[in-house]
Predict the structure.
Amino acid sequence: MASEYDEELEENETDISVEEFAKKLNLEILHSGGGTMHMATFNINRPGLQLAGYFEHFGKDRVQVLGEMETAYLNQLPPKKRMESVERLFKYDFPCLVVSGGCQPCEEINVCAKKYGRAVFKSRSRSTMIINELSIFLNELLAPRIVIHGVMLDLYGVGVLMIGKSSVGKSETALELIQRNHRLVADDAVCIKRVSDKLVGSSPSVIRYMMEVRGIGIVDVRQMYGTGAVRFSQPVDMVVKLENWDYEKQYNRLGGETEKYNILGLDVPMYTIPVKSGRNLAAIIEVAARNHRLKDMGYDAIEELEQRRRSKTDGGI
């Protein structure tokens, strides 16, 4: 089933501050450049060929990693050639340069970094290690993401995305689940990003840990219930769709075939729960989350029921 509620697809590019980048990857800032870097790809480049003068297939939009071999190559060049080599590289507007292996960058790098306003970092890790760390970090930073109108919670370790039309009762149900010691991830707007074959949900920073309760207004769940009542992010394991009860519609009573909800090209199990007066939605969603966990562990109540039926047909008691 395609997504049918309010969604906003964000571009797969982003800006990041020099300070945040250095903190996340445990890097030393040698030059901050403009203070902000634009990241457009998770690919990494080692500019050995570029230092030698070959720029025909240069990935200038990539983070550049200068390892021990590249540093040794520069150090053996005459000063004039070294400056020409470094300056040719720094004329390109790449996001940043990371000098790995604890190597000390040559003075020409410092001069060109100041001249062209490029960010330069130093890492104690060897080239292979820092490239792996950069790839993981950039994959997550640049992961395809989408914003969905809904509520997300962590129920028994299961990430539950609750969707439905406005005023169907999503926030009120979420509030009751929080009072049952479950944890809020996001209310109203859920940011979902695809990291490899996994969907991860979180809240926009402006409204993180906040909920809107009609008749009361905005409440801060973390301040009201404590840090144990919230989570920064959570994988999306299942979707619960709340809709007003339609008496002409046939709802799934046995659960033999699970609906799917597509998010960023991945199908997630979805359960449609009809809403009417007197139904305990929080309890029903708890059951749905527990049942989802059991299925993940290999137990299916439908299969168990079918085995019992066959056993009775074959003469069992």
User: Anything to note?
Assistant: The mean pLDDT is 89. The chain has ten helices and 18 strands.
